[in-house]
Amino acid sequence: MLEESSFANRKADYFWMLFLSSLMLLLLSPLVNLPFLSSPLAFVPIYLWSRRHPSTPISLFGLVTITAPYLPLALVGLAWILNGTWRAAAGDLLGCAVGHVGWFMQDVWTREMIGGPTVLSEAPEALKRLFGDI
Q1: DSSP H helical segments within the chain, as ranges?
Q2: pLDDT mean for each 10 residues of the chain (134 residues)
Q3: Alpha carbon distance, N-terminus to C-terminus of the chain
Q4: 7: which DSSP letter?
Q5: How far from the centroid of its chain's Cα atoms is residue 28's Cα?
Q6: Domain enclosing residue 87, as ranges
Q7: What pLDDT sits at residue 115?
Q8: What GO biological process term is on the record, naming one (predicted)?
Q9: Which DSSP letter does residue 65 get?
Q10: What pLDDT score does 85 carry?
């Protein structure tokens, strides 16, 4: 849903967000000793979507209904409960942290700070031309 709503007709920006997120995860992965980064990378778009759609209700297994901002934390808690150790959820928490940095740079910084868009919030012009977004 994130691709269809927030990044519709902005392929370069979506790629740039995933590329920067992958780079941040590679740099931060030694902190929690993660051998695989697919789960943390999957949490980045989940976190970004949940922050951009704060009033959307989400049903977890038909048992509990929460709003979208709590979805990443509920998934981290579920991973923690199912695996029995916080180490299992550490990668997902790292993905949430990287997603939070992405959300802050794309939504909060460009809207509320004086600086406006930066290279961390929008894809470079050359990448936009490569993807045909210009």
Answers
A1: 2-5, 11-32, 38-52, 71-83, 86-103, 110-112, 125-131
A2: 81 93 93 86 94 93 93 92 84 93 88 76 91 86
A3: 23
A4: T
A5: 15
A6: 2-131
A7: 67
A8: response to stress
A9: E
A10: 81
89-113 as b/e: b if 16+ CB within 10 A: bbbbbbbbbbbbbbbbbbeebbeee
> Side chain identity at 9, as an amino acid letter?
N
Query: What pLDDT score does 86 carry?
Result: 80
Q: What count of residues does the chain have?
A: 134
Q: What is the pLDDT of residue 74?
A: 94
Angle in degrees, 0-180, between the axes of helices 38-52 and 86-103, rounded to the nearest 10? 50
**CA dist list (Å): 24 to 18, 49, 60, 66, 80:** 10, 19, 29, 29, 23
Structural domains of the chain, count: 1
pTM of the model as a whole: 0.88
> Residue 20 is encoded by which pair of tokens?
């920067």
56 Cβ contact partners less than 8 Å away, ≥ 6 residues apart? 67, 68
Question: What are the φ and ψ backbone dihedral angles of 92, each rounded to 5 degrees?
Answer: -65, -40
